[in-house]
Amino acid sequence: MANEKETLIKIDEVGKWYEDVQALDGISMEIDRKDVVVICGPSGCGKSTLLRCINGLEEFEEGDVIVDGVSVREVRGTKNIYKLRSKIGMVFQHFELYPHLTALENVTLAPKKVFNMSKKEARQKGMELLERVGIPEQADQKPGELSGGQQQRVGIARAIAMDPQTIMFDEPTSALDPEMIRDVLEVMADLAKEGLTMIVVTHEMGFAKEVADEIAFMENGNIVEHNDVETFFKNPESERAKEFVDRVLVHI
Amino acid sequence: MGLDLSVIARNSNVLWGGFLTTLKLFGIAFAGGLPLGILLGLGRLSSKKWIYYPVSAYINFIRNVPLLMVVFWIYFALPIVTGHNIGRLPSAVIAFIVFEATYFGEIIRAGFQSVKKGEMQAAYSTGLTYTQVTRYILIPIGLRRVIPSLMTQTIVIFQDTSLAYVIGLREFVRASTVVNAREVRSLEIFGFVALVYLVICLAGSTISNRLEEEGE
Ligand SMILES: Nc1ncnc2c1ncn2[C@@H]1O[C@H](COP(=O)(O)OP(=O)(O)O)[C@@H](O)[C@H]1O
Ligand SMILES: [Mg+2]
Fold this sequence. Notes:
The complex is a heterodimer. Chain A is α/β, with parallel strands linked by helices. Chain A has ten helices and ten strands. Chain A has a six-stranded mixed beta sheet with strand order 6-7-8-3-9-10. Chain A is globular, with a radius of gyration of 18 Å. Chain A starts with 6 loop residues before the first strand and ends with a helix. By secondary structure, chain B is mainly α. Chain B has a single domain (about 5-215), classed as MetI-like fold, CATH 1.10.3720. Chain B is about 80% helix and about 0% strand. Chain B has ten helices and no strands. In chain B, helix 5 (about 90-115) crosses helix 7 (about 130-145), helix 5 runs antiparallel to helix 8 and helix 9 (about 170-185) packs antiparallel against helix 10. Classes of the chains: A alpha/beta, B mainly alpha. The interface between A and B is medium-sized, with 28 and 18 residues. Magnesium ion (MG) binds near residues 47 and 170 of chain A.
């Protein structure tokens, strides 16, 4: 291939404790620009914590995360952390939409405040984003009036509203009814085609097979196996990953 | 002995003047107490010790002192310390703001604590600053959750304003005692005053209950 791989995010021996519970155990991982990386692993293994460490929502005691050349440890507690975060969108398991704002306002709040966009400009941009995720007709509804699938699509529109390089998904479909999962996964697959770097915590192995470039399996706060998708499913190196794959594949 | 309600009409000027003073005191105490209460609520949740401890000390101190004492201190003690007498209405206003803000503050703190951590994290993840998240997420969501309690406390403030009576401020209750001293018609005059408080507070709590039902 002509264009060489270039590391966008480097997770370097990150250790994180909650009181005396160790959530991340010196974890290291590199994510290349424009790659889609799926992270899976049992509940409580530290997946959500890892995502929150990448954009500095959570402090960590050991190691560092380098995002596009910027050290999270260095910018933490300074104004530059806000800039770093604005380049990484995040989508949550339970959507976490702002309940007092409409779908459109959820999407446009950050661009309005961070870029000082005018109301008109923000509205136009917000409507484009809602069209992209397929729910422009819900623009003026509050989150409480939307279905789970619609809420998550607003969540995705909000996450890409700042034109980030990277978007992180934390189990984006696990709180959804089965019939809505497909819609959301389709929106995510579209984003992958547009060249966003994506880190996706999910157990949707169908999505991983079709869309992801790489897949990482985590356990006890560390990576057990990180491989390209084909190898991961056909010849996993680790016994634990193998067991896990067998178990989740049964459910598809 | 029959009721002579004309005593109210005869003294309507004095009573109306007192009522306006009560409204003024109430209005300013509310307008000052609410923003100060928001700041106190934020301070109580601050991770910075130099904010958290003084704010908590202030709130705990004021909430364990009778309002009457606060009114007395501001009116009698403050001029001795500062050398300036600021007058009855300003003294009462300051006392009420200082006092009621602590009650608002604790209600608002509970409201802030009810805001989901995930919603705040979502806001931070888009690149919003601490100030922006506080202003556009934490305060609007948190305040909305506690509107009924804030309404109830606001009704309490309205009733509390009658305590300014003790420093000689001619608010509604004091005005009525002035009228009564001349007319000696306690039943009619104080009955009327009680009725006015009752109507206003009932209206307030009806609205508050409505909001609570709507909230659910
Ligand atoms: N806010 C928190 N406070 C205390 N412990 C936490 C917190 N968040 C996560 N943990 C603990 O850290 C570990 C990793 O959790 P998490 O990152 O949520 O795992 P996953 O997302 O893989 O299910 C778990 O043991 C969990 O109980
Ligand atoms: Mg999780």
